[in-house]
Design goal:
It is a single chain. The protein is of the alpha/beta class. It has one domain: Alpha-Beta Barrel (TIM Barrel). About 35% of the residues lie in helices and about 15% in strands. The strands form 3 sheets. The protein has an 8-stranded parallel β-barrel. Strand 2 and strand 3 form a beta hairpin.
């Protein structure tokens, strides 16, 4: 069987996927759709965080404080807090996920004007391979780092250029090349996947994406480049990219009030592009404060109603490129925003299975693209299917299951069994 091909709605030459026919998300009547989870790498010390938040800071500090002062329902990884500069800890993360049945990670990748950041997992992957059959691809989290969530609006810590030139893009491509040529890097029709988190950061997204394609070609790489759609206005970028992920629960949270207005969204983005980075951060924070004057709480029942709604189906139909879903395991950013937190209730395993079934039965999605879950381990935002000391492993089991039988019963494996299997695999690989 040759590589799957992609059918676009805008008449452009097809890249490498197939939006319809055999590539639909009909997992249980055909080939299994690959399951990936987003990997959050912010669990090791770096100098920029030392300077901004104090020596030794990692996102574990936020999780620990939230647990200690009961800002939320307590949660933390069953294996305890880990350090991703420790190769054994990285191995264990990959092995636990592989043993549980995940097919890979979509790894958040941070790259700024001065190069990569928080890249301990990438350094590990440069020297080592994940478990056999387990793959990964990069999701470039292309947004500035600031101290916005701490109320210091104008302090930019790290900058993503709004109009990167060839030199900057060429350096980034050189950094990405050895990963994309690795046998463990995810490809679609022999083309490595690469996702840009925020096209709107760029002054002219079409120009920037075209420059990236050109520099990839100069480096001998022909990637499929995708992006995350987080609101209705983001659909406009679908003519630029090869594929799209509808990023939940962000798209859900942006489906209320003025946030879903396409014209308002475009005008706001145009204003931000005219401002300096510091001014743009300040205006963005003021907008967030006006829209979020207190805590926002959403039940998972309301999320499921949205997930199958006509409005969401209309969003998928408006996208001109192949699309896949990003599923959510809940969201709670109280560790960062305290009283101004936003929460999407953690689903029960049965509710997660219902969401999975809706996604797999959606003929608007391309089953050639891996199905993503947000996230494996974004603990400081309350989004993790990694086995949890307090909440268990039911969501992880539901995600990897090939059965639609609700999984609300006792865990098939205890947490210790998950960890022991993963750690055993890691030790075995370490001595080979």
């Amino acid at each position: 069987m040759g590589p799957a091909m992609l059918q676009r709605r805008d008449g452009r030459a097809p890249p490498v996927l197939d939006r319809h026919s055999n590539s639909q998300n009909h997992d249980f009547n055909g080939p299994r759709v690959r399951r990936y989870a987003i990997f959050f790498p912010q669990f090791h010390q770096v100098s920029v965080n030392d300077l901004a938040w104090g020596h030794g800071f990692t996102d574990w500090a936020l999780v620990a404080v939230a647990n200690a002062f009961d800002y939320w329902t307590r949660r933390s990884p069953a294996c305890g807090f880990y350090d991703l500069t420790n190769a054994n800890d990285v191995q264990t993360q990959f092995d636990v996920a592989a043993v549980a049945g995940l097919d890979g990670f979509g790894l958040y990748h941070y790259y700024f004007t001065d190069g990569p950041e928080l890249n301990a997992v990438e350094r590990y992957l440069h020297k080592s391979q994940p478990p056999p059959g387990f793959q990964y691809f990069f999701i470039w989290a292309n947004e500035n780092w600031s101290r916005r969530w701490a109320g210091r609006n104008t302090e930019i810590l790290k900058t993503v250029p709004s109009a990167p030139g060839r030199k900057e893009i060429s350096g980034h491509v050189r950094y990405l090349k050895p990963y994309m040529e690795s046998g463990s890097y995810t490809t679609i029709g022999n083309k490595p996947m690469f996702v840009m988190y925020r096209p709107d950061v760029f002054r002219d997204p079409a120009v920037t994406v075209a420059l990236y394609r050109d520099e990839f070609a100069r480096a001998g790489i022909d990637p499929s480049i995708g992006y995350f759609a987080k609101n209705v206005p983001d659909a406009a970028y679908s003519s630029i990219f090869d594929f799209c992920y509808v990023f939940e629960p962000r798209a859900f949270m942006n489906s209320f009030g003025v946030r879903k207005n396409r014209i308002a969204g475009e005008l706001f983005r145009k204003v931000l592009r005219l401002l300096s980075n510091e001014r743009a951060e300040m205006v963005s924070e003021l907008a967030v404060r006006l829209l979020n004057r207190g805590a926002r709480r959403y039940s998972f029942t309301s999320f499921l109603a949205y997930f199958s709604s006509d409005d969401r189906k209309a969003l998928l139909r408006s996208l001109k490129c192949p699309v896949q879903n990003v599923l959510t395991c809940g969201w709670n950013n109280a560790p960062r925003y305290r009283q101004r937190f936003t929460e999407v209730e953690v689903p029960t395993p049965k509710q997660f299975s219902e969401m999975l079934e809706l996604s797999l039965g959606d003929d608007g999605c391309s089953g050639t693209l891996p199905l993503l879950c947000n996230a494996w381990n974004e603990w400081s935002e309350g989004a993790a299917i990694e086995p949890c000391m307090y909440l268990g492993d039911g969501l992880l089991r539901s995600f990897v299951s090939n059965s639609m039988v609700p999984r609300d019963g006792p865990s098939l494996k205890g947490l210790d069994e998950h960890l022991c299997e993963g750690a055993s695999k890691a030790r075995g690989r370490a001595v080979q």
